[in-house]
Amino acid sequence: MTKTKATRDLERRLWNYTHSGPGNAFACFEVTIGVSVYNSKKQIVDFLSYKNNDFRAYEIKVTLADLNSKNALSLVGDFNYLVLTKELWDKIQKMKQKPEALWFAGVMIPKGDDSLQCVRKSGHPTVTFGKKALLMESMVRSMDRELNKVYSKRMYDELEADNEN
Asked: What is the pLDDT of residue 152?
């Protein structure tokens, strides 16, 4: 499925937000929680970061329909956020009855400097040691998937260059 320009923009801003300042976070997009062989319901976090023994889970939503869809939100971290477009946040602010997803997560929206700002703080649920171990294992597995994509492309490009010589 192709991502919209708004989704890609929020992803870039989220990456910039988590990788700026001292002590960058470890982070990965599209982290599958647990091993799907043992879990019939695949739970995927849009973006998961780890810093100072805290996991932060981010769900990226660009439309109200997406926010209200039946797809489960993967709010699995010590801190959980919805990353929304400014337009969607403005629309939600005007609503009498807010989407249920806002009960469980903080909200971040774009900021002028190609980053994000927190407009609603996240709660702080208790994440057990066992759950943290599962999140760490899931994140490492997803990071390996992303690294394999890079190396596979690079090796293919090197093979193509060798064949041209």
From this structure: 80
Give me the residue label for tokens 């041209």. Answer: 164
Q: What are the phi and psi torsion angles at 30 (to 5°)?
A: 50, 65
Q: How do beta strands 54-61 and 79-84 pair?
A: parallel
Kindly indicate the confidence band of residue 159, based on its pLDDT and cuts at 50, 70 and 90. Answer: low
State phi, psi for 97 to the nearest 5 degrees: -105, 115
- Using DSSP, state whether 119 is helix, strand or coil: strand
Helix (H) or strand (E) segment spanning residue 134: helix 129-164
- DSSP annotation of 150 reads H
Predicted TM-score (pTM) of this structure = 0.85
Q: Which residues sit opposite 82 in a β-bridge? A: 59, 107
Cα atoms in the Cβ-side hemisphere of radius 13 Å centred on 88: 22
Nearest to 78 by CA among 116, 49, 118, 119: 49
Short-list 8, 10, 3, CA closest to 88:
10
Helix (H) or strand (E) holding 17: helix 5-18
Give the CA distances from residue 116 to residues 87, 108, 113, 137, 157, in Å, rounded to whole numbers and listed in that order. Answer: 14, 6, 8, 27, 35
